[in-house]
Each structure stands twice: as C-alpha cells, then as structure tokens.
Amino acid sequence: MEIVIRAAIAFFIIWLVTRAAGRATLGELSSFELVVFVVLGDLVQQGITMNDRSLTGSLLAVTTVVLLAAILGYANMRWPKFGKITQGRPIVLVRDGQIDRKALHRERIGIDELSMLARQSGVEKYSEIRLAIMEASGKVSFFTQEASADSADSV
After folding, report:
1. Pick from 92, 89, 71: which is nearest to 81 by CA?
2. Exposure of 94 by Cβ count < 10 A (0-12 exposed, 13-18 middle, 19+ buried)?
3. Is residue 64 a contact partner of residue 7, using CB atoms and an 8 Å limit?
4. Cα separation of 10 and 147, whole Å?
5. pLDDT digits over 41-78, tens only?
6. In the predicted model, is pLDDT for residue 19 greater than 90?
7. Residues 3, 63: contact at Cβ < 8 Å?
C-alpha cells in the first residue's frame, strides 16, 4: 500500500511541476529537455518504489500513475470547469495586431519566439494577425486578417 501512496503523491507533484513549467516549455521540448524528463521519470520511479525492485512493486506504481492519469482525463471530460483548472485555458497573445505583453510575460514567451512562431505559420507582420492564441497544449494558433475575409466569402 505504501507504493500506491508514494505513486499518488509523485503523480500530483509531477502534475504541479509540469503546470509550473509553463505551456510554452512543454509544447516544444528540446532534445536535452526530453532527456531531462526521461531521467526525471527514472528518479521518481526510484523514489516511489524505494528499494523494492520486484516486478509487483514496479507494476503497482505504474498502474497507480496510469489509473490516476485516466481518472484525471475522465474528470476533465466530465466536468469542463475542472478541466479548465487542470489543463488551463487558451490565452490570447495578439489581438488585431496588438501584442499582449503581459500575457507573453506570464507565459514566459519572448517577442523573438513569438515572431519565430508567426513566421513558421506564414505570418510576416503582426498587423496581419487578427488573433494569436496559445492553446492549452502549448501550441500557438494564428488567425490572420485575410483568413477571416476568406471565410466570410466562403460562407
């Protein structure tokens, strides 16, 4: 039973750490950050199972974490308000060409990074952006002025 309690505690601590890391950080992991997260997983596993190297202990820890993740996923689906708390809400970064610098600061996104993301989406100037939204997943969606004009024509 001790392994189940340790796994549950580790699950919630990992959830808090990933929330604190920010969406932008987790949305685009570098190779080094990916290795760090894998190593972190191994370190957490050692803390959960302590010196229990048995198959039963490992499977119990993994089952607990997977079960808690499934419960969290179901709760997010079943109760949308709960999902907004655990997953976060979309954040508007640019509206009608105007950059929300406070939102960028809160999400720890530099203007250079926003410019790079815009260019990758085919946007050359901020004035072209009707809306730029950071999704809960950490990805940024860009909606341009011409896209809204095109959609008005096609409806």
Report:
1. 89
2. buried
3. yes
4. 45
5. 776 777 776 776 676 776 777 778 778 888 888 888 89
6. no
7. no
Instruction: Select from 14, 4, 16, 20 the least CA-distant residue to 42.
Output: 14
Do 134 and 93 touch, CB atoms closer than 8 A?
yes
Give, for 92, the enclosing helix (H) or strand (E).
Answer: strand 91-95
Q: Which two tokens stand for residue 103?
A: 């939102």
**Exposure pattern of 5-28 as b/e (b: 16+ CB <10 Å)?**
ebbbebbeeeeeeeeeebbbbeee
C-alpha 38/C-alpha 111 separation (Å) is 30
pTM, two decimals, is: 0.59
Side-chain half-sphere CA neighbours of 21 within 13 A = 19
Tokens 């600061």, located at residue: 105
Among 122, 121, 108, 86, which residue's Cα sits nearest to residue 26? 108
Q: Which of 103, 141, 102 is nearest to 123 (CA)?
A: 141
Task: Report in angstroms the alpha-carbon separations of 37 from 40, 44, 60, 87, 100.
Answer: 5, 10, 21, 19, 31
